[in-house]
Structure formats: C-alpha cells, structure tokens
Design a protein that fits this description.
alpha/beta; Rossmann fold; 3-stranded parallel β-sheet; 3 strands; 10% strand; globular; oxidoreductase; NAD(P)-bd_dom_sf; Glu/Leu/Phe/Val/Trp_DH_C; Glutamate/phenylalanine/leucine/valine/L-tryptophan dehydrogenase C-terminal domain-containing protein
C-alpha cells in the first residue's frame, strides 16, 4: 500500500484528528462505513459530500451535516451499489 506523504508540492502532513476538518469543496469518504459520526461531523468543512463507501455516516452525523448545510449525495446514488 502506498502513501501521498512526501508528494512534491503537497502541504505538510496533518494529524489524523484534523483529517475531517480540512477545508474542501467536495469530500468523498470512500473506504469504510461509519467513519463520520456525531463526534466528527461538525468538523467537516465541505460543501458537498459524495458517499463512496457503503454507509460512511451514522444517522446522527447525517443530521449534523444537514444542519450545517453540507449537501450529502447518499451511497445508494453516489457509488451505484458498490
């Protein structure tokens, strides 16, 4: 398995606890389910989230994202059933 650490032109490495708070236009959680929870959903600074993984958000996180104005494209649409 590879990594982007040390990629030329990339910014400094960030701490894992800051991962979800990186400002971006589109966020695509595409690996594991239930990675976005009530504990970290409020940190997300994206306009759009495309659920590439199956069930990357918990129901509580979905509520927080909606309240914060993040447009979530659900996994059943975004990943065509994986």
């Amino acid at each position: 398995m590879g990594s982007v650490v040390g990629f030329a032109g990339a910014e400094d490495r960030i701490a894992p606890e800051r991962f979800w708070s990186v400002a971006c236009d589109i966020l695509i959680p595409a690996a594991l389910g239930q990675q976005i929870t009530k504990d970290n959903a409020g940190q997300i600074r994206a306009y759009i989230m495309l659920e590439g993984a199956n069930g990357p958000t918990t129901p509580e996180a979905d509520d927080i994202l909606r309240d914060n104005g993040v447009l979530v494209v659900p996994d059943v649409i975004a990943n065509a059933g994986g």
